[in-house]
Amino acid sequence: MNQKSKIFVGAMSGTSVDSVDAIAVKFSSDNKKSKIIGFVSESINSKLQNKIRNFSSNSPFAAYTEIDFEIGKLFANTINKLIKDFAISPNDIQAIGSHGQTLFHAPKGAFPTSIQAGNPNIIASDTGITTIADFRRGDIAAGGEGAPLVPMFHAFLADNNPAIAFINIGGFCNITIFSKKGVDGFDIGPGNYLMDFWIQKKDGALFDYNGNWAASGKLQHELLNEMLSDPFFSKTPPKSTGFELFNSSWLNNYIRKNKYYDEDIQRTLCELTAKSIANSVMEYAPLINNLVLCGGGTYNSFLVKRIKHNLPNITITDSSEYGISPKELECCAFAWLAKRRIENETNCSCRVSGAYSDSICGGIYSPPAKKRNQKIKST
Ligand SMILES: Nc1ncnc2c1ncn2[C@@H]1O[C@H](COP(=O)(O)OP(=O)(O)O)[C@@H](O)[C@H]1O
Ligand SMILES: [Mg+2]
Fold first, then answer.
1. Residue with the nearest Cα to atom 5 of ligand 1?
2. How many whole angstroms separate alpha carbon 154 and alpha carbon 156?
3. 114 in contact with ligand 1, CB cutoff 6 A
4. Domain contains 351
5. CB of residue 171 inside a 6 A radius of ligand 1
6. How much is the pLDDT for 202?
7. What is the span of the domain harbouring residue 283?
8. Count of other CB atoms within 10 angstroms of residue 222
9. Does 216 sit in the ligand 1 pocket, CB within 6 Å?
10. Which of 12, 13, 18, 201 to mutate to test the pocket of ligand 1 (most atoms within 8 A of CB)?
11. Tens digit of pLDDT for each residue in 307-364?
């Protein structure tokens, strides 16, 4: 390994199940000179998307092994494409940080766990590069939520500036706040997940482009207030959530009470995301003057307009000001978490997760001896 050129790769597939994203980054110690070398995004085919979306804790074991294998292969192919497209020498990559695809997240269940599919042994074998994966269960074993994991990376980017907060709007939404005591963060609730679900069900579109459909509807205040009364929104952090709570049954429970137009429901779901973000900022970060957005929801212009409307006194920007586009940021975080793991530095803060201790999370998967330092073949 050439220690002078420490490239780290981050690979991610979120709860939106839209794509596998991979990034290659060279980090500098204070981020000012960090350099993104390349980014690729490979869409997940609808057959695999459906397998993932239909997976539940009651699914047969074979359903898990199938997804674990297929997602592992897709991650490996995506990373090999990144290496090929940007002419990166695999020998210059120190490690891959793979989040995998969350299939189940129940850190406070009877048997606490969080399961990410995407066999890291396959990734290590097919790329010939050491792979770090299983980032969440170490923290859960220490009593934490295993989520959110990105706040320490946000702290690295913003140098713990207390005037700034970060909000990641993926399928679900999380916030990072800084104070004199350190970094704080928690899951706010649904980001794009329910909006995606509703438009997929009613229109077949993958997502509500720029929030145009939501913008055409009328906000249903009573429905919004009922949804906001879910105890998760008022629960004191640490807290994390996912589709185990905010799913089709959750939504049906509210919308079956009255007859609403489909577009009014979409409008109200959009406001649910905007309003829950604004409520969290006002309660937990009242003194910030800059809110930095990242994640795919940042491209939903109507949603961003509604966040601005709900937080009129705060400047709202996005992660591009740190040289990382909103769609790149989360996989960049996993490249950084892998770097911290390799360097045996804390990469999971107990202030955020509620664990009894900070942790160095992630298992290390080495490639087979014959694959190390081997030139990657295109797939
Ligand atoms: N132009 C856009 N308009 C509206 N929504 C968008 C747009 N681009 C991306 N999105 C939203 O972002 C989601 C993907 O965000 P992402 O950060 O990848 O989430 P995850 O981490 O859950 O995969 C899409 O499912 C969609 O809801
Ligand atoms: Mg995604």
1. 300
2. 5
3. no
4. no
5. yes
6. 97
7. 151-322
8. 11
9. no
10. 18
11. 999 999 999 999 999 999 999 999 999 999 999 999 999 999 999 999 999 999 999 9
